[in-house]
Sequence to fold (118 residues):
Amino acid sequence: MRMLLVDDSVTMRRIQKTQINSLGITDILEAGDGQEALGKLKSNMPIDMVLLDWNMPIMDGMAFLKTVRADAAFKDVKVIMCTSESEKSKVVEALKSGANNYIVKPFTPEALKEKIGL
Ligand SMILES: [Mg+2]
Fold:
């Protein structure tokens, strides 16, 4: 499984990467904003799953999600929104816009495993 980890916080990406590694997933690409993530997605397909932060500079998670869902080339890419506790109310909007699931940060490997259906 190849995963794209998108978060503007380097620290958060480091924490999440460790969690993902502990599930045996080692093919992980990283991006610091939605625009960078789009570039990585286009040039590294097939990517199976995107773990997507919401608040980011340049292009936020929602704008990235809508762009990805408007392109048939990415129809099989699963997108999991990573939200903070205070953003939980926005989850419905993300699911309506094509996110496959969501997870509240910081998450445990067990919670991630359940959300991504491993
Ligand atoms: Mg952020």
Remarks:
- The domain at 2-116 is CATH 3.40.50.2300 (Rossmann fold).
- The beta strands are 2-6, 27-31, 49-53, 78-83, 101-104.
